[in-house]
Amino acid sequence: MTTLEQRKELGRQVLLDMFGERFLAGFDQAVNSTGFGSKAARLALEFAFAETWGDPALEKKHRSMVTIGALIALGKSDELKNHVRAGLTNGLTVAELEAVILQTVPYVGFPAVAQALEASMAVLKERGLLGDVTSAKDRGLL
Predict the structure, then answer these.
(1) Could you give the CA distance from residue 129 to residue 111 in angstroms, rounded to a whole number?
(2) What is the mean pLDDT of each run of 10 residues along the chain (142 residues)?
(3) In Å, how far are 54, 99, 103, 113 from 59, measured between CA atoms?
(4) What is the residue range of 125's domain?
């Protein structure tokens, strides 16, 4: 059994690996504060990142695929952007990302997928991975 401190350190390492130093610094600030939302940040660190993301039963790339699908279903575009970034860091290719998004169409519908494509394209643009492709929003369709 791991100690609380070991779980926290594992969670911090997972965050660092997936999101980088800047994200980790902001997360640490939230965890170490006593303000509104600090308890939620601690729960996320210890449970979502240490216990769930830190579990070796699935590769992080596959966890990213599952998480992206869940966030599409929930319609959480801002969090989806974070996890598209993490997925790319975890080895997800652009083609695999598109396939994950398209896999959700029969389950969540085209409006949710259009929103997911838009969010994902914003991340791909910021990473220089999109080329000259324009989004539905860029074309005035959303």
Answers:
(1) 24
(2) 86 95 95 94 94 95 98 97 97 98 97 96 94 78 71
(3) 10, 18, 19, 25
(4) 59-142
Q: Are residues 68 and 51 in the same domain?
A: no
Q: Please tell me whether residues 49 and 84 are part of one structural domain.
A: no
Amino acid making up residue 27: F
Q: Identify the residue whose tokens are 């130093």.
A: 21
Whole-structure pTM value: 0.89
Residues 6 or more apart from 122 whose CB is under 8 A from it?
81, 135
Is 114 in contact with 102 (CB distance < 8 Å)? no
The single-letter DSSP state of residue 55 is -
Residues in the chain: 142
Q: Are 117 and 135 in contact (CB under 8 A)?
A: yes
Question: At which of 57, 75, 91 does a domain end?
Answer: 57
Residue 100 and residue 30 share a domain:
no
